[in-house]
Each structure stands twice: as C-alpha cells, then as structure tokens.
C-alpha cells in the first residue's frame, strides 16, 4: 500500500483511486424508454380512468347542484351547470318542515347504525375468533349452520322476526330497529376466515406473557387487525344506514323514523318539492362521508402499526 492510498498492482506500482467530484449525486439508471405504442396505451388508460372518475362523480354533482336550486331551475329545459341563485334557504326549509322530522330522523339513523355496527362487529369478532382458534368438537358444525343461514331468503325470517319484536312491544322503538341486526352471519363468517389466517406467532407471544384467550384477543389480535375491523365496520354501518324495508315496518311513529323513511315521505307527498328532496338526500350522505374520512385515517394507522406482513 502506498502513501497515496492506491492499491498496489502485482508489478509493485500503485493505482490511484478515481476521484469523485464533491456534491455530484450518483446517477440512477433509468428504465427503458417507452415506445410510441406504450405512450398511447398509457394515455388511453389515463383517459379511461379520468372519464370513469367523472362518470362516478356525476350523480354527486347533480345532487349538490339540485339541492341548492329552485324547483324551476331543476325542471327548466335550459340547463345550467350551476344554480342561477344558490338557495341557502333550502337547508332551513328542510329542517323546518313540520311534516318530515329530518333532524330527528338523522339522529335516529346515527344512533341505530352506530350501535348496530358496534354490536355486530363485537359479536362477529368474538364468534369468529372462537370458531377459528378455540378447539371445539362441533366448531365445524356450528360454522356450517352459520353459513347455512346465509342461504335463507330474508323474506322467510321477516314475518317471524316482526312477530317477536311486536310481542316484546318494540314496535316504533329504537330497540326494535337495533336488536335484530346485532347478529349478522356474514360478519361472523368473514371474521372467522380472517382469524384463521392470523399469524399464530403473535398469539403465542401473548400466551408466553401470561395472557389467556380474552387477553390475547383484545391485546394482541384486535390491535393488529385494525384495518380489517375498520373495513367490516364501514360495510356494516353503510348497510344499516341504507336499510329501508325493516324500518318501514317497525318505525310506525315519526319519532322513530330513520333518514331513509324520511326521504321516502317526499316522494309520497301530494306536492313534491324537488329541491327539498335533493337537499335531504345530500344531507343524508354527510355522515357516510364523515365516517369514510375518519376510518380512512384509522385504516392507515392500523396498517402502519400492525405486526402482520404480507
């Protein structure tokens, strides 16, 4: 080795290292340039995606546009992209309508959907984890019975369920709207399938720390399954929020109406106020949008903090 720091060659002479200019970033090898056909293909795909997004957003645009318009603007043959005059009074008119208790209906829907979602997810998660992890001789039989209930048409159980709810005196009450939806066979089945593929190493680590089945479930499994819980909760909440037939039969008093029942009253009125109907529809989707925004961040945090890879 010479004083210059170069490596000696077999002949005894040193080879000086190649100097690298300071401050010059290392060059990154670029990929193969796209051919004209590939550029056209990429442009076509982008165009299709943009058109699909616009087509998807078109109903929401029409909903908001008509919600702040007058009946004359909505039915006018001369179409305008925006209302000629933004009718902010449509909001107060909607919530001030004595025939349709929209505010009460929104509160009822939020309470019913929230409680029903929390109960269905809790029951489904516990049942699914028990079927997937707790050794039980008849676990397969129980799972088969649960799956078999998915094949039964809802119309078959509709009348018996109504008779039971009516016998309990739950007609026109929130209990009659919430309790029948606390157990959902599909939620149990989905949780069972998910927990069957859950890494056993994480559960074994919890048992080494002295945790039993409840401790492992609530302190190990649930925190590492946040994204799945959020997805199931979103699906369950949307299904409960959009339910119409069961609330239509049970909610015989306006004090127990849900938002879907309130929306239907605008279509059955003698005089249909289109702007009020569109405003009610626009207001009814706000809780769903808020739920999506909240759970979107929750899903990201759940994925980042999870110990499951792949």
Short description:
It comes from Nakamurella endophytica. Residues 106-295 form the ABC transmembrane type-1 domain. The chain has 310 residues and is mainly α.
Question: What does this entry look like structurally?
Answer:
Helices cover 64% and strands 1% of the residues. The protein has 310 residues and is an all-alpha fold. It has 2 domains: 41-87, no CATH class; 94-305, MetI-like fold (Orthogonal Bundle). The chain has a two-stranded antiparallel ribbon with strand order 1-2. A hairpin with a 5-residue loop joins strand 1 (7-8) and strand 2. Helix 3 packs across helix 14 and helix 4 packs across helix 8. It is flat. The model is unreliable at 1-5 and 305-310 (pLDDT under 50).
Notable characteristics:
2 domains, 15 helices, 2 strands, two-stranded antiparallel sheet, 310 residues, disordered C terminus, mainly alpha, MetI-like fold
């Amino acid at each position: 080795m010479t004083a210059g720091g170069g490596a000696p060659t077999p002949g005894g002479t040193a080879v000086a290292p190649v100097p690298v200019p300071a401050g010059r970033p290392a060059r990154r090898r670029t990929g193969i340039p796209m051919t004209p056909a590939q550029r056209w293909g990429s442009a076509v795909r982008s165009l299709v995606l943009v058109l699909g997004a616009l087509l998807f957003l078109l109903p929401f645009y029409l909903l908001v546009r008509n919600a702040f318009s007058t009946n004359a603007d909505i039915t006018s043959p001369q179409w305008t992209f925006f209302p000629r005059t933004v009718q902010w009074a449509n909001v107060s008119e909607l919530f001030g309508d004595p025939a349709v208790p929209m505010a009460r209906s929104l509160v009822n829907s939020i309470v019913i959907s929230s409680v029903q979602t929390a109960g269905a997810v809790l029951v489904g998660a516990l049942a699914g984890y028990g079927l997937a992890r707790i050794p039980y001789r008849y676990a397969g039989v129980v799972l088969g019975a649960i799956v078999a209930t998915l094949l039964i048409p809802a119309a078959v159980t509709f009348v018996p369920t109504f008779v039971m709810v009516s016998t309990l005196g739950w007609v026109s009450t929130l209990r009659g709207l919430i309790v029948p939806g606390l157990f959902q066979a599909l939620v149990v089945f989905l949780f069972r399938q998910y927990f069957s593929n859950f890494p056993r190493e994480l559960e074994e680590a919890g048992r080494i720390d002295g945790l039993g089945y409840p401790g492992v479930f609530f302190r190990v499994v649930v925190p590492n399954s946040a994204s799945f819980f959020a997805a199931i909760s979103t699906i369950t909440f949307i299904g409960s929020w959009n339910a119409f037939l069961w609330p239509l039969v049970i909610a015989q008093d306006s004090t127990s109406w849900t938002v879907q029942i309130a929306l239907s009253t605008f279509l059955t009125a003698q005089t249909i106020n289109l702007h009020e109907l569109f405003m009610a529809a626009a207001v009814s989707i706000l809780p769903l949008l808020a739920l999506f925004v909240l759970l979107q961040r929750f899903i990201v945090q759940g994925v980042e903090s999870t110990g499951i890879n792949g």
